[in-house]
Every structure is written in structure tokens, then in C-alpha cells.
Amino acid sequence: MPPLTRSPLARSIPTRFSAPRVRASRLAAAFAGFGLFFAPLPSADAFGPPPRPLVEQTAQAKLLAEFERFAALSDGTVGIAVRDLQTGETQSFNGDTLFPMASAYKVAVAGRIFALVDAGALRLDDQLALDPALASEGGIAWMFSRPGAALSVQRLLELMLQKSDNNATDVLVARAGGPQAITRFVTGLGVNGLRVDSDTAHLLYRAMGIHPSSGSFRHNAGAARRADPMIVTRDMRDLPNLSFATEIEDTSTPRAMLDLLSAYESGRALSADSMQRLFTIMAHCETGKHRIVGMLPPGTAVAHKTGSLNGTGNDVGVVRLPDGRRFAVVAFVMKDGKGHKARDRIIAEAARAAYDYFLYAPERAHGPTHKS
């Protein structure tokens, strides 16, 4: 057997110096470690400022903060109110501020009409005459000049709530007993902060700043526009009429409109059949495609009614969540000069924030909350 030999690499390293060198390097590393251990720590500034303590926001606070952020998109005033229709939990921003309802008042008109149906004083297939004295502009105004023209209550409700037809609305307002009868119906439900003072023609007169005592709407409106070109400019540019926006007539707070929707949905105001018919008609609303429904998931069931008039943009309705629960939402914008796109976005953002809140917020206080 040949004798054991060391490898060429091993032979090149003198063995008498290997062990001392290893021990020296280990001692140097140890002393260096002790030096680091006993050396003073760097100041906190070396790592940047200390982190701020986290402040946990509740889901409600986040929602209200979002409402306030959306309101900043307008140069006017924004009011938002939402309610879980199962628990009654309510969240609002400027919820007790009065806003012009514009065509959103037609929700109150519809309630009064359905209450008459429930009382047996009216039938949905009753034919109501189209009195030429009630004709204003647009929509079915042309039908009022036809002798003997009439439409069913059902069809008039559809025109009023789905197309926001002012002429159909004023026929129903007259059959409801006038604006005061509609207000009495609303207050009789315990709803405070919502009043109806005019039919649509006289609401438009007030928005134009005129108060004619007689004559057709077309004649009076035409004369006013010729006398004051600002009326035409305001309409074309969708600018607010600030004096009109501060009037108390035909106004509602977001919370009051929310209370009215809740009274319908709960069965306190209408029979189950009338409530179902009302919301079915509102579910086919053709106006305001970019408002409440604008940012909700496709296919979300929404029954709503819009309102628009000179710097005012509104939408009110009931939204169904994927699990079958429902919430009501009211969004009002007034005195706004930024245009309908900004108002539509505010309303759409508010509706989507409420949708996510009621669907996903794991823990919520089930009590009234608002921010004025």
C-alpha cells in the first residue's frame, strides 16, 4: 500500500503557522462583536422620525368622511342621507338642511295618489282628463290641445316617475287635492321637514322669478324670457338661481325624504300592493342614469326618482343589496355652478359608498348618526 501523501494544496500551507492564525482571527472577531455590543446605539433620527400612532376610524366615520369629500366636488351645498331599511341605522351629511326638491317632490305626489287608491277613492285604471289649463312645456303637453284627451292614473304615474313628465304630474297633483293635500299626507305619516307648495308649473314660475296670476304657461314663460334674457342663460348654462334656492317652499331635508321612503317601504303609508306598484314603476326610471345607479354593480336593483333645476341635482331611492337587504339613499345638491356632471358624480359616489358600507362594514352602530 503506498504511503499517504498530502495534497499539493495542503503542502503549500505551512502547518506550524495555521492554528495560531485561526485563533487570532477568532479573537479579533470576538472583540469586534463585543465592541458593537457595548457601543452606543444610533439616535432615533438616524432611522427617521418615529411612526405616528395609528388612529383607527370606525366604519361610520369613514363613510361620513367620504360624504364630506364628495361634497367638496361642488361649489354649492350637498346633503346626503342613507338608511338600512332593516335595522333603521341612519347616516347623514347635512341631513337636516333644507334643499329644493325639484322633481323629486313627485315621490310625494305618487304616495298621495296610491293612498287614495288604497282608500278606494281612486282606481289605477280611472281616466283623468287632460285639462289644457294644466299644460306646461315638453312631454305630453301636445296632447292637452286634443278635445276629450285623457290618460289612466297608471299611465300618468308612469310618465311622472319614469320620464319626469311635468304635464302628467300636474294632472295628478290636481287629482290628489292640490299641493296642500299632498303636504298633509306627508305630515300625517310623521314626516317633518318636507313640504309641497306648488304644482310643477308654479314651481317653474318661481324658479324663473315670476308670479303670474293667469294665462297659459307657454305665454307667461315666453314673456318672462323675453323680458329677462338671464332666465334663458341660466337654463342653457344650468346655473343656480340663488334667491330661489333659499326659499322655503317646495323643499325637503335629506332626512325627511328618507323618512318618506322608509314609510313607503315599511308598509306604514301604503298597502303592500301599492308599495310594490310604486317601487316597480320607480325601478324603470329613465332619467339620471349617472346618478344613484351610475357606480353601482351592473344589475343592481334600484327604484329611484331624480330632480333637476337650475344648479339643483337630486336623486332619491331604494337599493337592493346582493343578499336581499335594502337601503334608502337621498342625495341633494343645490346652488351648484359646476354643472350636472359634477352633481351626477357626487350622487353616484355617495350611493356607491353607502352600498359598500351596508354590504361590507363588519361592525356598525345601529343608531342615528349624522354630521351637519
Word description of this protein:
The chain has 372 residues and is of the alpha+beta class. The protein has a single domain, classed as 3-Layer(aba) Sandwich (Beta-lactamase), CATH 3.40.710.10. Helix content is 44%, strand content 13%. It has 14 helices and ten strands. It has a six-stranded mixed beta sheet with strand order 7-8-9-1-2-10, with helices on both faces. Helix 4 crosses helix 6, helix 4 packs across helix 7 and helix 9 packs across helix 10. It is globular, with a radius of gyration of 34 Å. The protein starts with 7 loop residues before the first helix and ends with a strand. The N terminus is likely disordered. GO terms for molecular function: beta-lactamase activity. InterPro entries: Beta-lactam/transpept-like, Beta-lactam_cat, Beta-lactam_class-A.
CATH topology: Beta-lactamase
Strand order of the largest sheet: 7-8-9-1-2-10
What is the CATH superfamily label? DD-peptidase/beta-lactamase superfamily
Number of helices: 14
- Give a quick account of the main beta sheet: strands, pairing sense, barrel closure: 6 strands, mixed
Helix content: 40-55%
Percentage of β-strand residues: 5-15%
Total strands: the figure is 10
Provide the low-confidence segments as ranges.
1-20, 30-38
CATH architecture: 3-Layer(aba) Sandwich
Domain count: 1
Q: What sequence of helices (H) and strands (E) makes up the elements?
A: HHHEEEHEEHHHHHHHEHHEEEHE
pLDDT averaged residue by residue: 88
Rg of Cα set = 34 Å
User: What is the approximate shape?
Assistant: globular
